[in-house]
Amino acid sequence: MTKQLPAFLEAAELMPYNLGNALKCGIRRGKQNSGAIDELEKMAWHIRREQTLRRTVNAPIIGEKSKAKIHEICHSLAENETAEIRTAIHYLARASTQPKARDALAMAAGAIEREIAIQKAKAERS
Question: Is there a domain that residue 43 lies in?
Fold first, then answer.
């Protein structure tokens, strides 16, 4: 019997490498010893890395079934997230399925930077 992957890993495997890693960091933030801010910073790093790569190379072409699966999983993952993480996940899905969606990467990066600022402000108040 084959063990089924958690949904976010299934989506991450369908996405370009850096975007899949960004999604994983976003979902597991606060569940790792490194803490939420560290995971968010890793998420931002992967998004910025993908932005750098896309200046010279478009994302790989993804089949229609995979595109639908990425959007379906990302939509369900984003339901219980903060507004900034929900925005970032939405734009990660878009950037994964549209090879030239550089604007989506910028929007995802901006959302993560705002979430990092929110989390740092909460940590300072504690």
Answer: yes
- Per-residue pLDDT tens, the chain, 126 aa: give them: 455 568 888 899 999 999 999 999 988 886 766 688 999 999 999 999 999 988 887 767 788 899 999 999 999 999 889 999 999 999 999 998 887 778 999 999 999 999 999 999 998 997
Q: Which amino acid is at 99?
A: P
Q: What total of structural domains would you count in the chain?
A: 1
| Block residue for tokens 């560290």 | 38
- Please report whether residue 87 resides in a domain: yes
Distance in angstroms between the alpha carbons of the first and the last residue of the chain: 46
Those residues with Cβ within 8 angstroms of residue 101's Cβ, 6 or more apart along the chain or in another chain: 59, 94, 95
Select from 105, 113, 63, 43 the least CA-distant residue to 90. 105
The closest of 66, 59, 87, 92 to 10, measured between CA atoms, is 66
Instruction: List the domain range (segments joined by +) for residue 105.
Output: 7-125
pTM of the model: 0.86
Q: Are 101 and 46 in contact (CB under 8 A)?
A: no
